[in-house]
Design goal:
This protein is of the alpha+beta class and 315 residues long. It has two domains: 200 residues, Formyl transferase, N-terminal domain (Rossmann fold); 94 residues, Methionyl-tRNA Fmet Formyltransferase, Chain A, domain 2. 25% of the residues lie in helices and 23% in strands. It is built from eight helices and 17 strands. The strands form four sheets. The protein has a seven-stranded mixed sheet with strand order 5-2-1-6-7-8-9, sandwiched between helices. Strand 14 and strand 15 form a beta hairpin. The longest helix is centred in the middle third of the chain and has 24 residues. The radius of gyration is 23 Å and the shape is elongated.
C-alpha cells in the first residue's frame, strides 16, 4: 500500500522504521517543525524528520493541516492510507477521507480508556495495572473511532512513563502493519468503542508535576513515575525548585509530617499524608541529577526542614 506517515517524537520511530522495512511504500511524511532545544537554543528537527530525511523521504512540516498547500500536497500523494503516531496536529474533517482507507492512529492505551494526549502518563498516575495500545480509524471525535487492533501490556511497579511508552512504541509497530494487511486483504473488522467506558487523558503541564506532600504516599510515588521524564516531578526547598526522580515507599516510617525531611548518611526520607518515601535522584535548580543523600549533605538542611508549598503551611 502507498502510506502517508504522520508523527513527531521518538515514540513514532519504531512504526516508521517498520513501514520502511515492509512491502509498503511510504510516499511522504508529516511532522512538527524544527524546535529550539538545548542551552544554545539551536533549531532541531524532530526524530521523525531526521529518520525520514535519512531515508530520502519527502518531509513536510505545516503549522496546521488547514493550510491549503499542505492539503494539496496530501491529496497529490494519492496514498492508500495514512498512519499517525503522536503527530501532534489535528487532521481536519475534510482530509479524513482523502486516503482511500482513511487515517490509522496508533494510540497508547486500551481505548476507550485514556483518550487524549497523555494516555501513558495518566494510566500510571491513575494506578492502572494493565494498559496497552490500539490502532483505530481517525474520525472527527477525540480518539473515538473504531478499533482495528489492540494489545495489552502490564504496568510494572517501577515503570516510568518513559519506560512504558518505549515498550508500547515497539510493540505497537507490528500492530500497525497487521492493520494495514487486514485492510489490504479486506479482512479488517472495526470494533466500535463503548462510549460509557471512556476516560480522558489531557496533556500534562509543569503544574501536574508539582508534588503535594499531604497526598498519600502511593499517590505521590505514582505521580512521580507518571510524569517522568516529562513534564517532570518537582517540589521546592524554600524558594528554590528541586526536581525529583522516582521514589520508594517506606511503610514502616509514619512519624514524619508531610514534606518533612529526615536525612541520614545514605538516605533521605520525606513525610507524606501516609508513610514516608525515600528520595532517589534529585536535581537542584541549575544543577545535574545526583543521589539524594549527596544532595542533602551539600544542602546543609536544618532541623525540621520541609519540602513543598503544602509543607510550608504546616510549619
Amino acid at each position: 500500500m502507498r502510506v502517508l506517515f504522520a508523527g513527531t517524537p521518538e515514540a513514532a520511530l519504531p512504526t516508521l522504521s517498520a513501514l520502511l522495512e515492509s512491502d509498503h511504500e511510504v510516499v511522504g511524511v508529516l511532522t512538527r517543525a524544527d524546535a529550539r532545544k538545548g542551552r544554545g537554543r539551536a533549531l532541531t528537527p524532530s526524530p521523525v524528520a531526521r529518520l525520514a530525511r535519512e531515508a530520502g523521504l519527502e518531509v513536510r512540516t505545516p503549522a496546521t493541516l488547514k493550510d491549503p498547500s499542505a492539503q494539496e500536497w496530501i491529496r497529490s500523494l494519492e496514498a492508500d492510507a495514512a498512519v499517525v503516531v503522536a503527530y501532534g496536529r489535528i487532521v481536519p474533517p475534510g482530509l479524513l477521507a482523502v486516503p482511500e482507507h482513511g487515517w490509522l492512529n496508533l494510540h497508547f492505551s486500551l481505548l476507550p480508556a485514556w483518550r487524549g494526549a497523555a494516555p501513558v502518563q495518566r494510566a500510571i498516575i491513575g494506578g492502572d495495572e494493565i494498559t496497552g495500545a490500539c490502532v483505530f480509524q481517525l474520525e472527527e471525535g477525540l480518539d473515538t473511532g473504531p478499533v482495528l487492533g489492540r494489545l495489552t501490556e502490564t504496568i510494572g511497579p517501577r515503570d516510568t512513563s518513559g519506560d512504558l511508552l518505549e515498550r508500547l512504541a515497539h510493540r505497537g509497530a507490528p500492530l500497525v502493519l497487521r492493520a494495514l494487511e487486514d485492510i489490504a486483504g479486506h479482512a479488517a473488522a472495526p470494533e466500535p468503542q463503548d462510549e460509557a467506558l471512556a476516560t480522558l487523558a489531557p496533556v500534562l503541564s509543569s503544574a501536574d508535576g508539582e508534588i503535594r506532600w499531604a497526598d498519600p504516599a502511593q499517590s505521590i510515588e505514582r505521580r512521580i513515575r507518571g510524569v517522568t521524564p516529562a513534564p517532570g516531578a518537582h517540589t521546592s526547598l524554600g524558594a528554590k525548585r528541586l526536581r525529583l526522580g522516582p521514589v520508594d515507599l517506606v511503610p514502616e516510617v509514619t512519624d514524619l509530617l508531610p514534606g518533612q525531611i529526615r536525612a541520614a548518611k545514605h538516605e533521605v526520607l520525606v513525610g507524606t499524608g501516609g508513610c514516608a518515601v525515600r528520595l532517589g535522584r534529585v536535581a537542584p535548580a541549575g544543577r545535574s541529577w545526583m543521589d539524594a543523600a549527596a544532595w542533602a549533605r551539600g544542602a546543609r538542611l536544618g532541623a525540621g526542614a520541609l519540602l513543598g508549598a503544602d509543607a510550608a503551611g504546616a510549619r
